[in-house]
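Supplementary Methods. Inverse-folding protocol.

Structures were first reduced to a discrete structure-token string of length 236. This string, shown here, constituted the complete conditioning input.
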């Protein structure tokens, strides 16, 4: 694991997310104290979210810190196997444009099914009813590839974090699935997180993606300023 993953934190939540406690200014201060070169301010959205302009304005109003690049993002779940993303269409349309968020963080908070998101409980029930592990992974990979293509400017948040919640692991992900994910990430310029909070993806996935040319970035998924840039697992 190259040490430079820890020089950035590409996934930091603020009070614009209802489950986080620090302001963007507090997170900026923490990033400076941690000596980071890059911090990406990210908050949770759904299709109905209206706060994104206020969030982007708050980040834009932060004082400049020498040597620290501040980026933005919105985190949204992948809804179904066609790659629909749970974010306001105008936010997705503005990605990378002046006044828009820089990237959308695509999250596997639920399993993107053919008919919409399946909660971990639903996935476990379907597994007990005979759904194969490979089919669960197939849904996730196909949906993620489609979402990357739809978004254009994405970052994969904590890839495969759903698997332990449904009784599976990265060992259930085939090399072919990883190669499909990597090819789509490279083609779309999608970055992939190595996520401290969820401790994923593991070494096999990271190495295979990196070997295919995928850009990996470090992230803590901090929900309070004290966790910004604090890595125990990433790079250890
Ligand atoms: Zn998440
Ligand atoms: Zn997050």
């Amino acid at each position: 694991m190259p040490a430079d993953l820890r020089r950035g934190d590409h996934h930091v939540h603020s009070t614009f997310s209802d489950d986080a406690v620090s302001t963007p200014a507090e997170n900026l201060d923490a990033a400076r104290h941690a000596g980071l070169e890059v911090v990406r301010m990210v908050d949770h959205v759904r299709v109905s979210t209206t706060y994104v302009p206020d969030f982007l304005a708050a980040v834009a109003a932060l004082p400049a810190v020498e040597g620290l690049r501040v980026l933005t993002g919105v985190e949204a779940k992948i809804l179904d196997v066609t790659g629909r993303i749970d974010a306001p269409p105008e936010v997705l349309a503005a990605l990378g444009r002046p006044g828009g968020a820089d990237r959308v963080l695509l999250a596997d908070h639920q399993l993107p099914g053919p008919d919409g998101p399946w909660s971990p409980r639903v996935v476990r029930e379907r597994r007990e009813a005979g759904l194969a592990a490979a089919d669960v992974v197939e849904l996730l990979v196909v949906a993620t590839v489609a979402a990357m293509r739809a978004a254009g400017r994405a970052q994969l948040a904590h890839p495969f974090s759903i698997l332990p919640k449904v009784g599976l692991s990265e060992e259930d992900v085939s090399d072919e699935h990883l190669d499909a994910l990597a090819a789509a990430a490279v083609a779309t310029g999608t970055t992939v997180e190595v996520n401290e909070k969820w401790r994923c993806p593991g070494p096999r996935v990271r190495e295979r993606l990196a070997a295919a040319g995928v850009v990996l970035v470090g992230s803590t998924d901090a929900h309070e300023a004290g966790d910004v840039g604090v890595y125990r697992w990433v790079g250890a």
